[in-house]
Amino acid sequence: MTAPTLDQLDRQLIDILAHDARVSNRKIAADLGVTEGTVRGRIKRLQQDGLIAFTAITSLRLEDSVKLAIIGVQAEYARLRPIAEQIAAFPNVDAVMIAMGRFNILVVCLFSELDRLYALASDQILVIDGVHHVETSIAVKTVKYNSRVVRIAEAERVVDADGG
Amino acid sequence: MNDNFVLDEVDRAIVQQLRDNGRATNQQIAETLGLTAATVSSRIRRMEDANKLRVVAVSDFAAHGYNMLMQVAIEVDGRPATEVATELAELPEVFAAHLVTGRHDIDILIALHDSDELPDFLQHKLAPVRGIRTIVPSIVTDVLKYKFDVAPIEAREGE
Fold first, then answer.
1. Do B142 and A6 touch (CB under 8 A)?
2. Under an 8 A CB cutoff, do B60 and A52 touch?
3. pLDDT digit string, tens, across residues B147-157
4. In total, how many domains does chain A have?
5. Which among B103, B136, B140 is the nearest to A97, CB-wise?
6. What is the CATH number of the domain that holds A37?
7. Which helix (H) or strand (E) holds B123?
8. Which residues on adjacent β-strands are paired with residue B57?
């Protein structure tokens, strides 16, 4: 991915909105000493370039004892992409990355019951043609997690931003 | 502050609207759900005050100039894994650090500006952390899916 150039104002906008996305354009404009039109235009461009997205984050800690698991998948190299796409299509999977390392697909999922995790790893992923091996690690404690910096997938990119 | 309340159906419907568009106005959400804007506003504030909800802008790694993602599995020896993970978490390049079950003890997600930074990171940032026995890095070459709407929420500073 080519790195787009962000100026000081873009960074200030991202900082403000990363803290609270529901601040009005008017207040942002007043705080940064620019016009509302500038704020609206900048936000729209950042969204269109896939550099920011607005969302609601709910608490992992409080949501029905949800746990995070990382599933490493060793898949046949020639069919890596279609296999990864098949895994990404599962609704109970939260992240799918193609990687170079001991595993060539990394899967992240949130689960609340161990049975469900087992079912995902064994009955959904391991049975895919071309998947040779699956290894599951459960996060027993999360020491750091930056939920504000992410990879914005294509599907998230175009959301209308006229908030105000 | 009562942060033990359970989200009801109205709360969940509002959260869903905000997931679709975090910048939707209270009035827009109210119209969609058949509520008043005041109800929407107070429900959102209640969930935020209880640290159950944050409505935020998330930014792409690329927006910060990070073009290389790496996941590293770490095996620890001679030092509690929590201590090692806490020390790793202080590195700005580390975006997530989990203590995990399985073959390794710690799993971290690292973002670097480009591959030129890799040798320096491995030799001068990772290697000096006491207690690391082995590391198994995986370089992420493609991200097909990355959902980010459930996360640990800490209280906001100053609250």
1. no
2. yes
3. 867 666 655 54
4. 2
5. B140
6. 1.10.10.10
7. none
8. A54
Tell me the residue ranges of DSSP E strands in chain A. Answer: 52-59, 67-75, 95-100, 105-111, 131-145, 149-150
CB B93 within 8 A of CB B110: yes
Range(s) of the domain holding residue B34: 9-49
Tokens encoding B81: 């894994």
State the Cα–Cα distance between residues B68 and B115, nearest whole angstrom. 7
Ranges under pLDDT 50 in chain B: 1, 157-159
Distance CA A72, CA B106 (A): 14
Nearest Cβ partner for B145 among A4, A46, A93 = A93
**Interchain contact A19–B (C-beta under 8 A):** yes
Question: What's the mean pLDDT in A124-130?
Answer: 97
User: Is B124 part of any domain?
Assistant: yes
- ipTM of this complex: 0.81
Q: Closest partner residue to B60 among A51, A85, A97, by Cβ? A: A51
In our burial notation (b when 16+ CB lie closer than 10 A, e otherwise), range B38-61 reads: eebbebbebbbebbbbbbbbbbbb
Residues of chain B in contact with residue A135, where contact means CB-CB under 8 angstroms, are 102-103
Task: Assess whether B20 and B69 both reside in one domain.
Answer: no
The verdict on residue A44 lying in a domain is yes
How many Å apart are CA B133 and CA B88, to the nearest integer? Answer: 14
Contacts of B50 (CB under 8 A, 6+ apart): B1, B2, B3, B4, B5
pLDDT tens-digit series, residues B99-124: 999 889 999 999 999 989 999 999 99
Q: Which residue has the tokens 């949130």?
A: A110
Cα R_g (chain B), whole angstroms: 20
Domain for residue A144, yes or no?
Answer: no
Provide the domain limits for residue A94.
67-138
